[in-house]
């Protein structure tokens, strides 16, 4: 996958890729909103969009409005209980091997474009040794920092970390990068405005 990244394997879908896959079959891995939005986008260009979904429905992971749009798109096809197990190609993607979890069968299909939409990387390695993060790199805040009721190591204040506060007093985290956040624009904006109140509170107590 790494070797073919940008040469048929993509982790985002822009107009450039859409034009290059005109009248082709496009494969999308994932069953959540980003995969659904990408499927709708590529369905305007590709001959056929095939969504490869590990689960057996979209209901638990995708917004209903998007499910309804996908159902009405004549060229989007969904393969449930499937996973890509291998990609093939010398200098660019030529085919993908797909397994069906129900039967265990593996089929190899020609493919020039494979788009992966299965979760996000917080990319917070640069924070190493500063604020506490979970094992996937998302920043811990507020109650999530308390382990068995104990405050984070190095926390010197007589109060618990406030709702959006990290393990360093006066440092706040909001939006997608925060562990446990709702991954939506409105939530990120809302958390940001709430954090401002916490900043004022914090500053008013700093002598
Ligand atoms: C395909 C897709 C579709 C989506 N559709 C919807 C939707 O329809 N409705 C909805 O509400 N939400 C949607 N979302 C979710 C929404 O985009 C996010 O919840 C929202 O953008 C989170 O905002 P944020 O500010 O926390 O993070 P981001 O928007 O990711 O902003 C973080 C910013 O920080 C920058 N950055 C990262 N590291 C550094 C660094 N070290 N130094 C400086 N800058 C840095 C990044 O470049 C980025 O600009 C979608 C997400 C995706 C991926």
Characterise the protein shown here:
The chain has helices at residues 15-20, 33-43, 64-72, 185-205; strands at residues 9-10, 25-29, 48-52, 76-79, 82-88, 95-100, 106-110, 113-116. The strands form 2 sheets. Strands 1-8-2-3-4 form a 5-stranded parallel β-sheet, with helices on one face. The protein is an alpha/beta fold. It contains 4 helices and 8 strands. Helix content is 23%, strand content 18%. The protein is elongated and about 65 Å long. α2 runs parallel beside α3 (64-72). The longest helix has 21 residues, at 185-205. It has 2 domains: 9-116, FAD/NAD(P)-binding domain (3-Layer(bba) Sandwich); 125-205, 3-Layer(bba) Sandwich (FAD/NAD(P)-binding domain), CATH 3.50.50.60. 27% of the residues are buried. It binds flavin-adenine dinucleotide. Flavin-adenine dinucleotide (FAD) binds at residues 33-34, 37, 123, 126, 175-177, 183-186, 188.
Topology:
Elements: E1 9-10, H1 15-20, E2 25-29, H2 33-43, E3 48-52, H3 64-72, E4 76-79, E5 82-88, E6 95-100, E7 106-110, E8 113-116, H4 185-205
Parallel strand pairs: 1-8, 2-3, 2-8, 3-4
Antiparallel strand pairs: 5-6, 6-7
The chain binds flavin-adenine dinucleotide (FAD).
Instruction: State the CATH topology of the largest domain.
Output: FAD/NAD(P)-binding domain
Relative helix content: 10-25%
Overall shape: elongated
Element-by-element helix/strand order = EHEHEHEEEEEH
Question: How would you concisely characterize the structure shown here?
Answer:
The protein is an alpha/beta fold and 207 residues long. Helix content is 23%, strand content 18%. The chain folds into two domains: 9-116, FAD/NAD(P)-binding domain; 125-205, FAD/NAD(P)-binding domain, CATH 3.50.50.
